[in-house]
Amino acid sequence: MNHHVLPPLALALITGLAVPWLLVRARWAQQVPRLGLAVWMLCGAAFALSIAVLPAQLLLPEETSHRLVDLLLTLHAPSPGRLAAGTGREYLAAAAAFAVLALPGAGFVREVVRARRARSRHAGLLRLVGRYDARLGATVLEDARPAVYCLPGRSRRVVVSSGAVAVLTEQELAAALAHERAHIGGRHHLLVAAAGAFSAVFGRVPLARIGGRTVPLLLEMAADDRALRGCSRDALATALYALAAGRAPRRAFAAGGPSAAVRMRRILAPQRAGHPVLRGLFAVATAVAAIAPAVVACCWTG
Amino acid sequence: MRVRRLGELEAEIMDRVWLWERPVSVREVVDDINRRRKVAYTTVMTVADILYRKGWLSREKSGRAWMYEAVRSREEYTAALMQDALGDSQDRRAALLRFVEVMSHEDVEALDEALRAARPGRPAGEAGRGR
Predict the structure, then answer these.
(1) pLDDT grade, residue A106 (50/70/90)?
(2) Chain A neighbours among B 37-96 (CB < 8 Å)?
(3) Contact criterion met (CB < 8 Å) for A176 and B99
(4) Distance, in angstroms, between A32 CA and closest chain B CA?
(5) Domain-embedded: residue B130
(6) B13 within domain boundaries
(7) In chain A, where the domains are located
């Protein structure tokens, strides 16, 4: 074992434990959900990369592992000649790294494929029993229970039940539809799938555990913000309430609930954000700065 | 484009089968659609066959023609879709993105309270519209 495992280990600890712990408490993340989402995604990528490099560093001889850290930090790809001239041990290390990366990768693909299959089944039925309403720009389902949802991805469409059309005023319906269109336009289903895959693969790591429930909530908030560009706060909040109250509550699935209350308070009383962007960037910079000393200690003096 | 038209035709055929609530022949469907737009007998026959293979229509021979009938009612299919839409199914993986998730009674009350707090002097949500 050599000390070059320390940079990826430090990065894995920071992105897997420290940043999620800070991020879930950070108020700016909910004020600027898109920036919060970006930080979660960066954390996920950095975490996956660092735990992939970890076994490679253990397998490599000291000289090579030193250079690998250099290459990753300076984002220099090794020359093709160098790649071809690798030793057996180096190939083994590369294989180990890719094997670790393949775990979340395969999880993501599985998640996307499963969801796509479920959606295309749903869309096939919807085409038969739904009625497209050109004025709403949405498919209407004849059912008294109020519901508004969207099918993102290939068979993209926004769906409302006739119950929702009856319960909501025109402005409220427009607000709910704008929210759903924001999901579709922002390809939010991919981030949901990524968060799902991450928590399936790295379930016990705080990054995966906290991210798995925070990312979907931030996506809802991002869609709320997008909808608020074209509708009033009151319309969106009332739509949220009317749809929540208009259906039979189920205790078994209460887990989905509190997020709506958080969204509601956020929609109705937007806190003054100060300089949220700066704060967000500050948090990112803090994370980077925290890694830097370890790297410097390891590679410039080592 | 062709795929899209076939999809529309599937819906048009199912509409009539559900509306008439009896076994229908391809000829009846063709004649009815032809009142509004031109459609070939063979096309409808092909699509009815597709619907049969997909398990949406059942059929029985009557003389030389097939008589088609819906396997399930429109309401049954709608109920299945609504189950997905309301998040009632056990599979909580997000294939659909819902405007609100299923929530408990307490959470709905919390929403009501938040709405009330935001606009004093006005009854919250639905009460304001006399529901």
Answers:
(1) very high
(2) 56, 74, 77-82, 84-88, 91-96
(3) yes
(4) 20
(5) no
(6) yes
(7) 3-299
B17: in domain: yes
Task: State which residues form the domain around B49.
Answer: 2-70
Residues A229-270 pLDDT 10s: 999 999 999 998 888 887 654 443 333 445 788 888 888 876
Chosen from A224, A241, A243 to mutate, greatest number of chain B CBs within 10 A: A241
Q: How far is A52 from chain B (nearest CA, A)?
A: 27
Pair (B111, B64) in one structural domain: no
Q: Which of A122, A129, A161 to mutate to test the interface with B (most CBs of B within 10 A)?
A: A129
> How many domains, in total, are found in chain B?
2
The ipTM value here is: 0.77
Chain A: closest CA distance from residue B119 (Å): 9
For chain A, the DSSP string reads --GGGHHHHHHHHIIIIIHHHHHHH-HHHHHSHHHHHHHHHHHHHHHHHHHHHHHHHHHS-HHHHHHHHHHHHHTPPPPHHHHHT--HHHHHHHHHHHHHHHHHHHHHHHHHHHHHHHHHHHHHHHHHH-EEETTTTEEEE--SS--EEEE-STT-EEEEEHHHHHHS-HHHHHHHHHHHHHHHHTTHHHHHHHHHHHHHHSTTSHHHHHHHHHHHHHHHHHHHHHHHTTS-HHHHHHHHHHHHHTS---GGGGGGSHHHHHHHHHHHSPPP-SSHHHHHHHHHHHHHHHHHHHHHHHHT--
Does B131 reside within a domain?
Answer: no
B115 at interface of A, judged by CB pairs closer than 8 A: yes
Provide, as residue numbers in chain A, all residues whose Cβ is less than 8 Å from the Cβ of B77.
Answer: 125, 128-129
The model's pLDDT over A40-76, given as tens digits with 9 standing for 90+, comes to 999 999 999 999 998 888 888 877 777 777 777 776 7
Q: Which of A15-29, A226-240, A263-277 has the lowest mean pLDDT?
A: A263-277
In this predicted structure, what is the pLDDT of residue A250? 46
